[in-house]
Specification:
The protein is built from eight helices and eleven strands. The protein is an alpha/beta fold.
Length: 252
């Protein structure tokens, strides 16, 4: 079973290709979060969690979701983290998570995808994004082969910088940066409601043609990247940054 959480579609894209290669089912964690019910997952195949990297670890919202879900059948758990460069020491935290919920940790592997955290970083243009995605294809196929053969993902070397990033930096990241106070919609907003539908936490409301964010943001960038008119901004820095979006609506 392939389970994914995704804001701009990077992790969704990887999950769908893993599922295709393995002939396996796909579960949208986004949908489960939005429905607000504890998920019951039953699979005789390994569980493969495909999620983005937030401050060199798995997103906290996904960690909480896994802790609340019920898993039946296979206890083997693989983790695929999409990232722009490194996932730091994320494997250590995923291993601890598995131990606490009764899953068998089978490894964590990064897949480099286009940078999409435009609230903080510059993002590559459309052509560069396409090239990065193309380079990710064989990497995803490699990971699918390991899962299909029942082999663990190889351990990756971790240095002090990785531990610092996934430790103290991750702890500071959420209170310092993860809030929605800077999100706003310009006059280009057509009140289509796409951002409301895309938000996995149900944090955005549309009333009288106006958007409002309500404080439960995880900075997935689904709203800003998926806006069809480019109306949503996060402060002044995002105005000229490319909005990378691979999201497939019908599979959300």
């Amino acid at each position: 079973m392939i389970l994914y959480f995704s804001g701009t579609g990077n992790s969704q894209w990887a999950a769908l290709r893993l599922a295709e290669a393995l002939g396996d089912d796909v579960v949208s964690i986004n949908r489960s979060m939005k429905e607000g019910a504890a998920e019951a997952c039953s699979s005789e195949q390994p569980l493969v969690f495909v999620v983005p990297t937030y401050a060199w670890r798995m997103p906290r919202v996904v960690d909480r979701w896994i802790r609340s879900a019920r898993f039946e059948g296979s206890r083997d758990a693989y983790f695929v983290l999409t990232c722009a460069g490194s996932c730091g020491n994320a494997a250590a935290y995923a291993r601890k998570l598995c131990s606490s919920v009764g899953l068998r940790f089978r490894g964590l592997a990064p897949v480099v995808m286009p940078e999409n955290y435009l609230a903080l970083y510059d993002t590559p243009d459309a052509e560069a994004c396409r090239a990065i995605v193309e380079r990710a294809e064989p990497r995803v196929a490699e990971l699918a082969a390991l899962v299909g053969e029942g082999k663990p993902f190889p351990d990756r070397p971790v240095d002090l910088r990785d531990r610092f990033r996934s430790g103290p930096v991750n702890v500071a990241f959420y209170p310092a940066l993860v809030h929605d106070a800077k999100f706003a919609a310009s006059d280009a907003c057509i009140a289509c409601g796409r951002c409301v539908e895309r938000c996995p936490l149900g944090n955005i409301a549309l009333a009288d043609g106006k958007l409002a964010w309500h404080g439960s943001c995880t900075h997935c960038m689904a709203c800003i990247a998926g806006c069809p008119t480019g109306a949503i901004e996060y402060g002044p820095k995002t105005h000229d940054r490319h909005r990378h979006d691979l999201w497939t609506e019908e599979l959300a």
